[in-house]
């Protein structure tokens, strides 16, 4: 039994009877089929938001290194607004249209590529880089309408889907535990020149508080207290503020700054494509396409498996709607002035709290908008406070490892490589790529090439081409 199905069975057998507008909402999101309640969905949405609220600060910091039009403080505020609005748009479409509890926001990894490789590395103006993101989103809308992106998901072998779930769980735990204490991270995993990584030091107050958070979150989980992860995050953050380990909020309310220097710059960037940079522009566009496509596929499969959505054929129901939401979010985000918007693996935190319908996403989307009015508070939530939630989500996602046929080496090897490279390669896309390239190789080597769908061959070829392309183009 998968973790997703286990969690589903732990929810109430039937939601309580509703009337009026509540009955309409419950019917729209099909509460009865998912055996969920308003309280469960709201807590799940709040938990997911709290787990990824860091994006409101981290993403602007990364992009501000490449976008230097105005005074840094004003620019940072504009980038926070763009981050929150683009996340709200994508997540709202995901919740209302696809009806999944998946949350979207500007992606980590692609934002670093945007800032450091494209703008600062290649010297491409940031509006032109935004134009590449805009075109990427339009292309994805076309691929979704023609059903091509959905077939890419169904072509992924079951062992790779399960291993992606496990890999994402380890990835989230690694992110949560390895954040440097200098920037408010947990510091439980630190860099080491001899051993690459090592265990952190309890001399660091942030590390001690992260461990405290792990214990209280674990207590809440094993006692089956609703909202366990949310209470763990809140309690750890408040204790950090009280003890002075993390700066307390400097205020409560702040009027959002309209992103006048960012909005619509993607259209300006289209005019910046010329004979001298069109090759670089095309290269950048292809990398954005590759990374976003397979990051999204990996995340949808991983979190979808955890939630119990994947059917007996290995398909994600309403996959096209979920992919459409992703494409619309990327397009809208580019217009707003941010790098690629994608589905976040942190959505697993809400799923772990029992969120099963689009109402979870709607609540999270609303919180992104509300957060823009309370930036000083959310800005003050330290990374060590979210580390326990990410660790426990990783534990929950590990259960999918049982569905991998470890006795069959043609599936065990690709699955292990996928699990291994997602956290250690710090990329869902790279781990998925490694597994999908090895899968047809192991099947052919064992004389079982007939088990390989044609689309899987195409995916493997695309990934190989991507590795060759990026190696030649970006070194």
What report would you give on this structure?
The protein is built from 22 helices and 4 strands. The protein is mainly α and 475 residues long. It has one domain. A hairpin with a 3-residue loop joins β2 and β3. The termini are far apart. The N terminus is likely disordered.
Judged by helices, strands and strand pairing, the structural class is mainly alpha
Distance between the termini: 44 Å
Morphology: globular
Rg over CA atoms, rounded to whole Å, is: 22 Å
Considering DSSP H and I runs of 4 or more, what fraction of the residues is helical? 55-70%
Q: Helix count?
A: 22
Strand tally: 4
Q: Estimate what percentage of residues fall within beta strands.
A: under 5%
Tally of distinct domains: 1
Q: Mind summarizing the main beta sheet? A: 2 strands, antiparallel
Spatial sequence of strands, sheet with the most strands: 1-4
Average pLDDT over all residues: 85
Secondary-structure element order, as H and E? Answer: HHHHHHEHHHHEEHHHHHEHHHHHHH
| Low-pLDDT residue intervals, each spanning 5 or more residues | 1-11
Transmembrane segments: 42-63, 75-98, 118-145, 152-175, 205-222, 229-246, 266-291, 359-378, 384-401, 413-442, 454-474
GO molecular function: purine nucleobase transmembrane transporter activity
Membrane topology: Multi-pass membrane protein
Subcellular location: Cell membrane
Provide a short characterization of the protein structure:
It is a multi-pass membrane protein. The chain is mostly helical.
């Amino acid at each position: 039994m998968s973790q997703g199905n286990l969690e589903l069975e732990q929810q109430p057998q039937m939601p309580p009877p509703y009337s009026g507008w509540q009955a309409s909402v419950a019917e729209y999101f099909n509460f009865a089929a998912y055996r969920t309640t308003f309280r469960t969905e709201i807590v799940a949405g709040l938990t997911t938001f709290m787990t990824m609220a860091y994006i409101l600060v981290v993403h602007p910091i990364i992009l501000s290194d490449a976008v230097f039009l105005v005074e840094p403080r004003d620019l940072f505020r504009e980038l926070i607004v763009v981050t929150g609005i683009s996340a709200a748009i994508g997540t709202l479409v995901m919740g209302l249209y696809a009806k999944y509890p998946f949350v979207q926001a500007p992606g980590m990894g692609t934002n670093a590529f945007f800032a450091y490789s494209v703008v600062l590395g290649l010297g491409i103006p940031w509006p032109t880089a935004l134009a590449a993101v805009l075109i990427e989103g339009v292309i994805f809308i076309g691929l979704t309408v023609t059903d091509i992106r959905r077939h890419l998901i169904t072509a992924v072998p079951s062992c790779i889907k399960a291993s992606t779930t496990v890999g994402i769980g380890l990835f989230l735990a690694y992110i949560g535990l390895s954040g440097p204490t200098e920037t408010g991270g947990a510091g439980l995993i630190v860099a080491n020149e001899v051993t690459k990584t090592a265990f952190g030091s309890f001399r660091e107050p942030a590390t001690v508080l992260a461990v405290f958070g792990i214990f209280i979150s674990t207590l809440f989980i094993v006692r089956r207290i609703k909202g366990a992860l949310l209470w763990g995050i809140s309690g750890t953050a408040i204790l950090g503020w009280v003890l002075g380990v993390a700066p307390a909020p400097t205020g409560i309310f702040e009027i959002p700054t309209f992103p006048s220097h960012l909005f619509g710059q993607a259209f300006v960037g289209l005019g910046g494509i010329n004979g001298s940079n069109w090759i670089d522009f095309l290269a950048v566009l292809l990398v954005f396409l590759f990374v976003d496509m397979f990051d999204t596929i990996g995340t949808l499969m991983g979190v979808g498996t955890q939630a119990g959505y994947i059917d007996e054929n290995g398909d994600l129901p309403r996959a096209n709607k979920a992919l459409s939401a992703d494409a619309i979010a990327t397009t809208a985000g580019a217009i707003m002035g941010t790098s690629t918007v994608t589905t976040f693996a942190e959505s697993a935190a809400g799923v772990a709290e029992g969120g099963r319908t689009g109402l979870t996403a709607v609540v999270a989307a609303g919180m992104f908008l509300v957060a823009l009015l309370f930036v000083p508070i959310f800005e003050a939530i330290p990374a060590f406070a979210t580390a326990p939630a990410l660790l426990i989500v990783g534990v929950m996602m590990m259960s999918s490892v049982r569905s991998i046929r470890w006795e069959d080496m043609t599936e065990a090897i690709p699955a292990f490589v996928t699990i291994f490279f997602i956290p250690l390669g710090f990329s869902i896309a790279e781990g998925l790529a490694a597994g999908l390239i090895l899968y047809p190789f192991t099947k052919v080597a064992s004389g079982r090439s007939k088990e390989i769908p044609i689309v899987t061959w195409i995916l493997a070829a695309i990934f190989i081409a991507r590795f060759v392309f990026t190696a030649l183009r970006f070194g």
